[in-house]
């Protein structure tokens, strides 16, 4: 298993959180083994679901999967616990953009609002701050948060007379290192996986004098339990 971890780490260090082109010979040199052993390692990583490979006459394209990134982050947390003895937040940066107005609609639903107050500890401003993620590492963190490895805080779904509202997964956050709020991972949303929706007890755009295109830093607490 340790050999697989090292092989996965090496691929990550080579930039395989995005697609990379690398031959078995080149990979063998990187991890200090024979070409045959390197080829077996890659097959084992693919079998575990940690990487995807596309082999062609030019060589092979490799990319670490969400499952592989989860494993890397678990190792990181383990090592961090050994050396730092304190939990670490995940940090991302997003670009402010104007949403479709559905944030205010969802946040003010009584079935959600009551749970936000009980489980998050604040009554949110009626609306969300929408951030578009650009950097590949930030996009991968967004994917990791959706996985079962990070349960977050569950806001349960409910029904009213008109429709059904799905569950929402939340993580406590700190916006621009100062204002506490929460990240919402909403199942039923028009936004794709590159967007973060943030709620807070105050109007964040006004508090930070934000306009579309501004950058915002978000620290995500993953050890809240």
Topology:
Elements: H1 2-13, E1 20-21, H2 24-31, H3 35-48, E2 51-56, E3 59-64, H4 66-83, E4 90-96, H5 102-107, H6 110-120, E5 129-133, H7 136-146, E6 153-155, E7 158-159, E8 164-165, E9 168-175, E10 179-186, E11 195-199, H8 204-207, E12 215-220
Antiparallel strand pairs: 1-3, 2-3, 4-5, 4-12, 5-11, 6-9, 7-8, 9-10, 9-12, 10-11
Total number of domains? 2
Largest sheet: 6 strands, antiparallel, barrel
Structural class: alpha+beta
User: What is the alpha-carbon Rg in Å?
Assistant: 20 Å
DSSP strand content: 25-35%
Measured between the Cα atoms of the first and last residue, the distance is: 28 Å
H/E series: HEHHEEHEHHEHEEEEEEHE
The helix content, as a percent range, equals: 25-40%
CATH topology of the largest domain: Elongation Factor Tu (Ef-tu), domain 3
- The poorly predicted ranges are none
What integer is the average pLDDT?
87
The number of helical segments is 8
- The backbone outline, from C-alpha atoms, is elongated
Q: Which CATH-level-2 architecture of the largest domain?
A: Beta Barrel
Major sheet strand order:
4-5-11-10-9-12
**Can you identify the CATH class of the largest domain?**
Mainly Beta
């Amino acid at each position: 298993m340790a050999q697989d971890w090292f092989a996965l780490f090496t691929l990550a260090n080579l930039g395989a959180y995005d697609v990379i082109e690398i031959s078995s010979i080149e990979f063998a040199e990187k991890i200090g083994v024979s070409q045959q052993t390197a080829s077996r390692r890659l097959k084992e990583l693919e079998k575990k679901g940690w990487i995807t490979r596309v082999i062609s006459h030019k060589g092979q394209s490799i990319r670490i999967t969400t499952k592989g990134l989860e494993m890397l982050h678990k190792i990181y947390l383990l090592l961090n616990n050994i050396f730092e003895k304190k939990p670490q937040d995940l940090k991302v940066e997003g670009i402010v953009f104007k949403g479709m107005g559905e944030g205010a609609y969802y946040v003010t639903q009584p079935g959600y609002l009551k749970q936000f107050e009980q489980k998050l500890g604040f009554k949110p401003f009626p609306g969300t701050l929408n951030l578009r993620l650009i950097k590949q590492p930030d996009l991968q963190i967004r994917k990791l948060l959706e996985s079962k490895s990070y349960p977050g805080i569950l806001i349960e779904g409910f029904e009213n007379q008109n429709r059904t509202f799905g569950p929402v997964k939340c993580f406590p956050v700190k916006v621009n290192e100062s204002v506490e709020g929460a990240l919402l991972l909403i199942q039923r949303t028009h936004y794709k996986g590159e967007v973060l929706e943030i709620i807070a007890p105050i109007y964040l755009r006004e508090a930070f004098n934000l306009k579309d295109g501004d950058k915002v830093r978000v620290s995500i607490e993953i050890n809240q339990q």
